[in-house]
């Protein structure tokens, strides 16, 4: 077998990331030189490799003989001189420019002229590190994601000084390691962290403002967007101090207030509450380094739920579109007699037929029996008049996202519905209080924001205005539990939790393409592989609809008046051209017309 072009690789810095990189390199057949000035860190890296390879043998993914070979290929040292024989050096020392410069200066005097020097930074300038090197053409960025053995993404970062040959060599290495490398230019955060950390910062600021609890923010993003972790839990995993460093680097370049670190990050970091590694950050953990969250003073007490809700025996849903039908299906499957009211009886019957088709699919997939389908469908009564809602205890509207239309509807509901009935809007972008003030009973009006498709999505944002009564909130939360949805509490401001965090991230992704920093495919791949997102930002924008996305971004910009929230011109141009996503056959990508 030919010797790999990069056969001997030194890893400088044996923390969590360095140890993970050493693990995948030794398993690939490379000779790995692990270097850390802290002897304990070096011993811990060896112990970690021994542990992971022992588990691999237990699971029959490796033989004992292969394990011995892997362990023999990993040697550790406390002096940088050990890197002299390496073909590639990867430094993953702390994110401090002076520290990294010292490492690169020492390597310049030790390694061969052809040795490639890679920095694992995700926040500092690769160009600056290269410019200070004796051979800037061999310096590049090689950004793995944590945990390195599991995460597929590797960002290969070139400066204007980097040799194409060096880029080709490390790209080939990444592919041989089973990774998915993407080539990016040198700017703080690169692609994945450049998008991720702005979102994390927004979440920290949302928590700091007491708009929503840490548990509700994290639940909203996991259940509403399908993310593997909530943003505050992820900040604890990354390290609050690390996140602050990355954000400071991002802000220094972008001057975007969205990247200005939320003060709570500094407060936590200065107090030593840096997340899991310290045993406490946004959450409290069983011990430093533990992933087990334990209750603390901020943990919600289920017994302190406040007012009791009103009994709900009958439900009304207003609308004839996909969301209205989905909500009616949710209530009917939970056993609630449900009136589905539309502008005409024909529209209401068509909406019920769509619910029937959805239930048929559920039977076909084995998610319910035909008897359960028949029972649920029988609970839905189509109506062509709002008068049919007179006996409902809870009415949820899902009509057009137009404030005048919703106000007119709530004025009519105020006349039709009995006193004590809770009136809810599913709006995702309009002020709930405007609907409330169209009635004579604003204390009974609330936001109940379901996510599409309503039967599948577990999240409901329960949006209270300054006029909403506690009894109405308690009623809606109790109903959410009955229909097996997870409620999160938030106030009446643009975007609520999910859209307020999601759409600035999507907008920043559009800006990256607009600035020719990275391609659609690379950005989508980076967020799926590096961030664990179920869809890349451009896939999601095309599914949601570019017109819908633009409308939400405009509402956010208008409410918060932050220049960083201004919709990207590229998004506006595509909407003006009628390129709205999958529904028109073309958005950021083209789709086959049905």
TrEMBL record:
Which residue range or ranges hold the 3-hydroxyacyl-CoA dehydrogenase C-terminal domain? 189-285, 495-591
Q: Gene3D superfamilies given for it?
A: N-(1-d-carboxylethyl)-l-norvaline Dehydrogenase, domain 2, NAD(P)-binding Rossmann-like Domain
Keyword annotations of the record: Oxidoreductase
InterPro entries in the record, alphabetically? 3-OHacyl-CoA_DH_NAD-bd, 3HC_DH_C, 6-PGluconate_DH-like_C_sf, 6PGD_dom2, NAD(P)-bd_dom_sf
Family matches, as Pfam families: 3HCDH, 3HCDH_N
Q: Which SUPFAM superfamilies match?
A: 6-phosphogluconate dehydrogenase C-terminal domain-like, NAD(P)-binding Rossmann-fold domains
Residues in 3-hydroxyacyl-CoA dehydrogenase NAD binding domain copies: 8-186, 315-492
User: Which pathway, metabolic or otherwise, does it act in?
Assistant: Lipid metabolism; butanoate metabolism
NCBIfam families in UniProt: PRK07819.1
Q: What family does this belong to?
A: Belongs to the 3-hydroxyacyl-CoA dehydrogenase family.
Q: What name does UniProt use for this protein? A: 3-hydroxybutyryl-CoA dehydrogenase
What species does this protein belong to?
Answer: Streptomyces tubbatahanensis
